[in-house]
């Protein structure tokens, strides 16, 4: 009986594994098709300057609705692309699409000060990454100072010499660097001194329970203080309520991104927003 049971477990396990593998193969196939067949799109989320409520920049976020209408999260897209060797293709598409869109906004004189593009830790290890970004900047004729790359702390832990080279190449070209999901990566703070970083984005897990959670208060306080001392900009992610915003503002945080202001939106919604409600004085072009 015991043996029967354990045999049964093995069979169940094998079936689960097979389903898992099939699912992974399906997703892999679908993603390959999505990248090649132009099924991906970018949405954009504004970052707000809390001083005057203007749009300080926009972040590009990849979106994919498959042919059956299911929405696949960017985390799944990125993870699957990384697992299946499609990350360079995906990343190249994102960078070019983002810069093409931003160039269009520049031509329409409604571009916010910068566009931010996410680059995963895995993507960052690609020695072609800096070239890909700089070529796209040149191709779409976007001033490099108006491009921000969002990286995670992983970049400072793994494959350091390659990553360092990439960071310095981008910074030397004028591209700015932001640390995304700051505080979740267990890296040392010392690297902020040694790398050409301009901005830290406080992870939304530390913002969610403000202004009530004592630990989160301390963490936000420390990050904002440190950023001020190091002359870095601070953006709070996932700001959904006014009490969070007010608290962050009191701590000295100048920028916020979140549903309190704007969700991510497609290019039509973004253009409408930028051409209708932006205070003219904040538009740099
Ligand atoms: P992220 O870069 O930290 O982006 C912020 C995420 O928080 C986005 O989720 C955004 O839609 C969501 N968000 C914004 N405001 C709020 C809010 O007020 N409340 C809540 N609950 N969420 C908010 P999204 O678009 O699902 O992206 C998830 C992650 O996937 C991103 O996190 C980023 O790490 C990654 N990702 C997205 N697009 C790309 C891409 O083009 N390339 C790479 N490498 N990664 C990407
Ligand atoms: Mg980001
Ligand atoms: Mg983030
Ligand atoms: Mg993230």
TrEMBL record:
It comes from the Bacteria. Residues 24-278 form the EAL domain. This is EAL domain-containing protein. It comes from Salinivibrio kushneri. The chain holds residues 436 to 720 of 720 of the full protein.
């Amino acid at each position: 009986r015991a043996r029967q049971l354990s045999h049964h477990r093995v069979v169940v396990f094998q079936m689960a594994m097979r389903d898992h593998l099939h699912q992974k193969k399906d997703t892999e196939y679908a993603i390959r098709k999505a990248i090649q067949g132009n099924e991906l799109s970018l949405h954009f989320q504004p970052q707000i300057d809390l001083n005057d409520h203007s749009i300080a920049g926009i972040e590009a976020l990849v979106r994919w609705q498959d042919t059956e209408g299911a929405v696949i999260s960017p985390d799944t897209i990125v993870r699957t692309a990384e697992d299946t060797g499609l990350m360079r293709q995906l990343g190249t598409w994102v960078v070019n699409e983002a810069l093409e869109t931003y160039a269009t906004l520049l031509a329409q004189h409604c571009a916010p000060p910068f566009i931010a593009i996410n680059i995963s830790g895995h993507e960052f290890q690609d020695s072609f990454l800096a070239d890909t970004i700089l070529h796209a900047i040149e191709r779409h004729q976007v001033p490099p100072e108006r491009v921000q790359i969002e990286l995670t702390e992983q970049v400072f832990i793994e494959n350091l010499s390659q990553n360092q080279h990439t960071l310095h190449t981008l910074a030397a070209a004028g591209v700015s660097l932001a640390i995304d999901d700051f505080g979740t990566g267990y890296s040392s703070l010392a690297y902020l001194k040694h790398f050409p970083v301009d901005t830290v984005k406080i992870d939304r897990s530390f913002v969610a329970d403000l202004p009530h959670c004592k630990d989160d208060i301390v963490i936000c306080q420390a990050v904002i203080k440190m950023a001020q001392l190091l002359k870095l900009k601070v953006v709070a992610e996932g700001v959904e309520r006014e009490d969070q915003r007010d608290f962050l503002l009191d701590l000295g945080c100048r920028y916020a991104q979140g549903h309190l202001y704007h969700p991510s939106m497609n290019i039509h919604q973004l253009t409408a927003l930028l051409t209708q409600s932006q205070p003219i004085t904040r538009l740099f072009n």
